[in-house]
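Dock A1CAB; give full complex structure.
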Amino acid sequence: MASGKLAFIGAGQMATALAGGMVRSKQADARQIWASDPDPKARERFESAIPGANAVAETAQAVIDAETVVLAVKPQYAGEALADAAPAIDALTLVVSIAAGVKIGSIAAALPDGARVVRVMPNTPCLIGQGASAYCLGPHATSEDGRRVAKILGAVGMAIELPERLLDAVTGLSGSGPAYVYTVIEALTDGGVLVGLPRDAALRLAAHTVAGAAAMVIETGQHPAQLRDVVTSPGGTTIAGLAELERGGLRSTLIDTVAAATDRSQELGR
Ligand SMILES: NC(=O)C1=CN([C@@H]2O[C@H](COP(=O)(O)OP(=O)(O)OC[C@H]3O[C@@H](n4cnc5c(N)ncnc54)[C@H](O)[C@@H]3O)[C@@H](O)[C@H]2O)C=CC1
Ligand SMILES: O=C(O)[C@@H]1CCC=N1
């Protein structure tokens, strides 16, 4: 039904980040947003994070007459959540799944024939309009559905369309990526504390350094190695730090990190 109603199945971290980002960016009116979750604490957190939104225990109540239904439960619970939603889904409903690893084919198989499914891999910075997402249209999703998903995701960050076979790789890189970067920020902060900085000053300097460096890559379009060379004076401080970083194997650790998370996403889809 073209009601504008947007229903999340699962009112957890990512549903809250996406719904909150959509309200902030005026892509959705909070009163049109519904979420179902069996956990009363999750419902409470969702409603207090998004004033005006409705969180309920029953999926059937959340999804009835929804224009868009977002599957936002852990992959292990996708089957049961889709079974609860299926009776309220018809050819007028757009179903968006953000569940890591879960394939469009298995989502469609749990829904009535012809269901319009789009698989998305977002990340938590969608909450503040800085998300990085990729999406893939299922066989019955229309080009209008593609535009709608691109517009929603574009309002909460950047989004690209990719073939479904690459979505596990996206999960391993940008879906899980914020956690890697938080770890880097925390470690840089500890480094700052080790050399005498107060912790709050070290944390602010570390976080803004990461944000500034990322913005340089995005805004200048220069290769990271070129930008790094500009920082690195001959015989200076940076090369002393970089030599230690290479000895610690940060580069190969991060490559292996993305590969391990991609493998896990593939496993979740089996
Ligand atoms: N957290 C993240 O950074 C990202 C998560 N995702 C995907 O988003 C999905 C949700 O992840 P999170 O929000 O982190 O998990 P979460 O655990 O915070 O939220 C999931 C919620 O679903 C609820 N739930 C469980 N079974 C249900 C059912 N049958 N019906 C309705 N609700 C049910 C749980 O009570 C929980 O509150 C996962 O599939 C994950 O792969 C995707 C991108 C990033
Ligand atoms: O850790 C997870 O499984 C989810 C998917 C991407 C980010 N968080």
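Observed: The chain is about 50% helix and 15% strand.
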